[in-house]
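Lecture notes, continued. The same structure-token format from the folding unit now serves as the input rather than the output. Read the line below as a description of shape only.
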């Protein structure tokens, strides 16, 4: 003879599994936040260290990247005379430096948005945090030998941060739409009223 499962027992089992799932979800959420925060701190340290280099050290560092870029752009770079090589590297130096600024702060803006994505004004907060660090970085360079802080670089850095924020927003939007979740506010997502959840609850 088969007996029907006790409703009380099944209810208790269901109740006992829900907290465990929620605890696991909270743990994974905190773990993701910790990873993003660590990456953000490491990026800030790297930018600080690069800004702490003197003008001569910074020129040597950027010169290495310029030589690499020159070899990639000009197949006969190694056979050119020294004056031509210097002219090419000099022309690439400005581009490489500004591209480095833009790229660093693109990553920073991306990470700030991932970290603050649950906040209502996450985009504004991410832009503000990126712009603040960019301004503090240029101020820091004023106290380094041979270096100077430029407002133009702050704008380039902030623009790079804004680009990273937009990339993060679009990627998260695609991911959430793929998972049948609805956007309830600009830049803020919720699964409480999603069509996917309504369909599950009706079953």
């Amino acid at each position: 003879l088969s007996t029907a499962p006790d409703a009380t027992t099944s209810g208790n089992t269901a109740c006992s599994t829900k907290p465990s799932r929620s605890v696991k979800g909270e743990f994974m959420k905190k773990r993701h936040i910790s990873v993003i925060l660590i990456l953000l701190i490491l990026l800030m340290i790297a930018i600080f260290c690069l800004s702490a280099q003197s003008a001569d050290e910074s020129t040597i560092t950027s010169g290495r990247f310029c030589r690499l870029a020159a070899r990639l752009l000009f197949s006969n770079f190694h056979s050119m005379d020294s004056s031509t090589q210097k002219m090419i590297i000099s022309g690439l130096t400005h581009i490489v430096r500004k591209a480095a600024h833009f790229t660093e702060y693109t990553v920073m803006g991306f990470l700030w948005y991932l970290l603050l994505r649950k906040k209502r004004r996450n985009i504004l907060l991410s832009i503000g945090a990126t712009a603040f660090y960019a301004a503090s970085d240029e101020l820091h360079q004023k106290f380094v030998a041979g270096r100077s802080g430029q407002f133009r670089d702050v704008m380039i850095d902030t623009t790079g941060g804004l680009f990273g924020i937009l990339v993060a927003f679009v990627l998260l939007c695609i991911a959430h739409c793929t998972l049948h979740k609805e956007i309830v506010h600009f830049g803020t997502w919720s699964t409480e009223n999603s069509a996917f959840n309504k369909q599950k609850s009706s079953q």
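Point for the exam: The two ends are 30 Å apart (CA to CA).
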